[in-house]
TrEMBL record:
<feature type="compositionally biased region" description="Basic and acidic residues">
    <location>
        <begin position="672"/>
        <end position="699"/>
    </location>
</feature>
<feature type="domain" description="SDA1 middle">
    <location>
        <begin position="522"/>
        <end position="685"/>
    </location>
</feature>
<dbReference type="Pfam" id="PF08158">
    <property type="entry name" value="SDA1_HEAT"/>
</dbReference>
<feature type="domain" description="SDA1 N-terminal">
    <location>
        <begin position="63"/>
        <end position="432"/>
    </location>
</feature>
<feature type="compositionally biased region" description="Acidic residues">
    <location>
        <begin position="538"/>
        <end position="548"/>
    </location>
</feature>
<keyword id="KW-0653">Protein transport</keyword>
<dbReference type="Pfam" id="PF21638">
    <property type="entry name" value="SDA1_C"/>
</dbReference>
<feature type="domain" description="SDA1 C-terminal">
    <location>
        <begin position="702"/>
        <end position="747"/>
    </location>
</feature>
<dbReference type="GO" id="GO:0015031">
    <property type="term" value="P:protein transport"/>
</dbReference>
<feature type="region of interest" description="Disordered">
    <location>
        <begin position="461"/>
        <end position="597"/>
    </location>
</feature>
<dbReference type="InterPro" id="IPR027312">
    <property type="entry name" value="Sda1"/>
</dbReference>
<dbReference type="Pfam" id="PF05285">
    <property type="entry name" value="SDA1_dom"/>
</dbReference>
<feature type="compositionally biased region" description="Basic residues">
    <location>
        <begin position="552"/>
        <end position="571"/>
    </location>
</feature>
<feature type="region of interest" description="Disordered">
    <location>
        <begin position="629"/>
        <end position="715"/>
    </location>
</feature>
<keyword id="KW-0690">Ribosome biogenesis</keyword>
<dbReference type="GO" id="GO:0005730">
    <property type="term" value="C:nucleolus"/>
</dbReference>
<dbReference type="InterPro" id="IPR016024">
    <property type="entry name" value="ARM-type_fold"/>
</dbReference>
Length: 751
């Protein structure tokens, strides 16, 4: 009787029927078909009034989505029916019912019952709905689904379709009025998906970057700011939360298992942790994918930058957005060495000490400078900085920022500096403020390396003055090929002993040496062969130590001018003349050795470039060697001409083509604290310390007084005492006087 009652209740008890169908699909097929017919009739009724909420229809959608894998033939049209309902009525549907339909489609997609392209196109359209919870569900599913589809191999067909659809979504927001419109909301979410997939290294191609670049010209400020932040941010970080998780502590788990009771659940947990650890270790062993900066993947950097500048010049956005536009334009100009001549007068107008965020504008000006810009375009900018910032009536911080800004600009465009202006700026090397002094001396140190002829004779230094005859300042438009062969030099200095550099990963490498030898083709002839074989001893390197490593006594050296005057008069001692000659010979020998080593490295790099086809493993090794050299430079920094150690953070920023604000501000004294900061530091100093004042009445002590103990005693224990007996004999007047005295004392104790 109970079984028959249960069978009779099955059509109305959908959760129980769902449980039974999953256990035995064949036995309950008739009941399922009955519910499927009920769904068809409910769908026809629902289409008449789609804005109303129908709980029965909602339960049927959940039920069929759950049991559809048991009856694939009967439910093959179910996903298309739900997609058609959402596509037609998604704007007027009830929020709860719409969410149920989306979750049913996600479930079917996870079971591979719907194609990804059809479903994701619908989900991008559903971004227009004014339902924040639904948009979060759609966003998470789209990112995870695209990541899963590209996990084993790139699904280029699906990627191109979705990228084109996202571009359509972004262009649909161009006519949107304000950020609250449906098209603007959908375009913003589509842009977030693009950026997230790029950061997860799934869509890291040029098409994705150029779709995001199109959003920089959106009339919706929120979309434009998101795209600008993408290009200005650090896009090489992998946003995958799985990779950021900490590895499980296997040793702690093993110790816990040894000392506690052993159960099956704990052993299963231990096996699961070991398996996850091995999986992460295997994923780390995979070949690294070098993620280039998004700025390098722009199709037309010159045209994109010109459009950005036109948008900036006519923009009425707030100051922060204009600053981001200027920053992006300068970054692209610095990375690709572009020429936007109208950008520099635009920046020149804003180089005033009273301008908001002027230090960032100076850094932007330095970022936009490079050696291919005509010097006469940069000269007015430097002159404006010197006139507005480096004057005696300005504060010391303003002068230091101006000098540091001029140094950053001139280091990128050395020909823009005039000798007269440089002489004026170097006069601040003895300024009373440390920041100004160090900024001026760093400018002197820079020109000692790039062009000491512009400096005054007294500022050139001994090493720069001696190397002036061999140093030739670079001319406008002259290219330096040393940077192109830098990676090849590192590869030649670190040859592959195991032959791993020749691994093409199933590619065949054709060697050209054998064919050339057979044809009697190329013959390597070196004109500098004699120079390459020069080998000098380093024993007389500095003259400060002998062969045993002991320091020699210092000899007093005369200045160059004094030596010249004494030599003319014939008053220079013989030992001094011999010392000068020995030092000149040592300097020449060092210079010859350095030139020989440099030629040898260049010849080895050129030989490697002309005789070997570089494999992907070679390029990976070059990148690793460059990173290793940068790490060595951070661990062992070399002092510059200004005597200041380089900041590792500034070096990383310059490697990315960015000038940090810290390099513009320079070192400063600690600012004086205001009242709030002083009070906060006082409170922090009082933490963990006893409160100042009397400890009378405090309960925080080892024991209580005898008077306090007497208050808790039994009356019969203190009845014999004189104070108690006298208290009994007190008159009413004496009691009043004692009470008033007690009240007065309590009031005084409170103060």
């Amino acid at each position: 009787m109970g079984k028959r009652n249960r069978a009779a209740l099955l059509p109305t008890n959908i959760p129980q029927l769902q449980n039974l169908i999953k256990r035995d699909p064949l036995s309950y097929k008739e009941e399922f078909l009955q519910q499927l017919r009920h769904f068809e009739s409910s769908r026809a009724i629902f289409e008449l009034k789609p804005e109303e909420l129908s709980t029965d229809f909602q339960d049927l959608i959940n039920f069929i989505a759950q049991v559809s894998p048991c009856y694939p033939e009967e439910t093959k049209e179910f996903p298309d029916q739900i997609i058609a309902l959402l596509s037609k009525h998604y704007q007027i549907l009830n929020a709860e019912l719409r969410r149920t339909m989306v979750q049913a489609l996600v479930l079917l997609r996870n079971r591979e019952m719907i194609s990804s392209t059809a479903l994701l196109s619908l989900f991008f359209t559903l971004f227009r709905c004014r339902d924040k919870v639904l948009r979060d569900i759609l966003y998470n599913h789209i990112v995870n689904d695209i990541k899963t589809s590209n996990q084993k191999a790139k699904n280029n067909k699906m990627n191109k379709t979705l990228q084109g659809f996202m571009y359509t979504m972004l262009t649909s927001a161009e006519g949107a009025a304000g950020t609250g419109s449906e098209n603007a909301i959908a375009a913003k979410r589509s842009l977030d998906v693009c950026i997230e997939l790029y950061r997860k290294n799934i869509w890291n191609d040029a098409k994705t970057v150029n779709v995001i670049a199109h959003a920089c010209f959106s009339p919706v400020t929120k979309i434009m700011v998101t795209a600008l932040q993408f290009f200005l941010g650090n896009n090489e970080d992998d946003g995958d939360s799985e990779d950021e998780e900490e590895l499980p502590d296997i040793k702690a788990m093993q110790h816990k298992q040894n000392v506690s009771k052993k159960t099956k659940a704990k052993s299963k947990q231990m096996d699961k942790m070991v398996a996850s650890l091995k999986k992460k270790q295997r994923s780390k062993k995979k070949a690294e994918t070098f993620n280039f900066s998004a700025l390098h993947l722009l199709n037309d950097p010159q045209g994109f930058t010109e459009k950005l500048y036109t948008h900036l010049a006519g923009s009425r956005e707030r100051h922060e957005v204009q600053l981001m536009l200027m920053n992006l334009i300068s970054r692209i100009i610095g990375v690709h060495k572009l020429t936007i001549l109208a950008f520099y007068p635009y920046l020149q107008k804003r180089l005033q000490p009273t301008q908001k965020d002027v230090t960032q504008i100076i850094a932007i000006t330095a970022q936009a400078s490079h050696d291919l810009i005509p010097p006469d375009v940069i000269e007015p900018v430097i002159q404006t900085l010197a006139n507005n910032f480096v004057t005696e009536h300005c504060a010391a911080e303003v002068m230091a920022a101006g000098l540091n800004g001029i140094r950053e600009i001139v280091s990128r465009c050395p020909l823009a500096m005039e000798a007269t202006l440089l002489h004026d700026l170097t006069e601040y090397k003895n300024h009373r403020d440390k920041g100004v002094m160090m900024a001026s001396r760093s400018l002197i140190g820079l020109f000692r390396e790039i062009n000491p002829e512009l400096l005054k004779k007294k500022d050139r230094g001994r090493a720069a003055a001696m190397n002036m005859r061999d140093m030739q300042p670079s001319k406008y438009g002259e290219s330096n090929n040393d940077g192109d062969l830098e990676g090849l030099q590192l590869l030649a200095e670190n040859p592959d002993e195991n032959g791993e550099g020749d691994n093409w990963d199933e590619w065949e490498e054709a060697s050209e040496d054998e064919d050339e030898e057979e044809q009697g083709g190329w013959i390597n002839v070196s004109d500098d062969e004699a120079d390459l074989n020069i080998k000098l001893s380093d024993d007389e390197d500095s003259g400060s130590e002998d062969e045993d490593g002991n320091k020699k006594p210092k000899t007093k050296r005369l200045s160059a001018n004094k030596e010249r005057r004494l030599k003319k008069k014939g008053l220079l001692p013989k030992d001094e003349e011999e010392t000068v000659k020995e030092e000149d010979e040592e300097t020449k020998a060092k210079r010859a050795q350095m030139m020989a080593e440099r030629k040898e490295k260049m010849a080895a790099a050129q030989l490697l470039a002309t005789t070997k086809i570089l494999t992907p493993a070679d390029f990976a090794k070059i990148e690793a060697l460059k990173l290793q050299r940068q790490a060595d430079q951070k661990l062992n920094p070399v002092r510059s001409g200004s005597g200041k150690r380089p900041n590792p953070a500034d070096a990383e920023a310059q490697a990315e083509g960015e000038v940090s604000i810290g390099s513009i501000i320079g070192p400063r004294k600690k600012a004086k604290q205001d009242y709030a900061e002083r009070m906060e530091s006082i409170k922090n100093g009082r933490e963990g310390r006893d409160k100042f004042g009397s400890r009378k009445g405090s309960t925080e002590r080892g024991s209580s007084t005898n008077k306090e103990k007497a208050k808790g005693k039994n009356f019969m224990m203190i009845a014999h005492k004189r104070e108690v007996r006298e208290k009994k004999k007190m008159s009413l007047r004496e009691k009043q006087v004692a009470l008033h005295a007690h009240i007065k004392k309590q009031k005084m104790m409170k103060h």
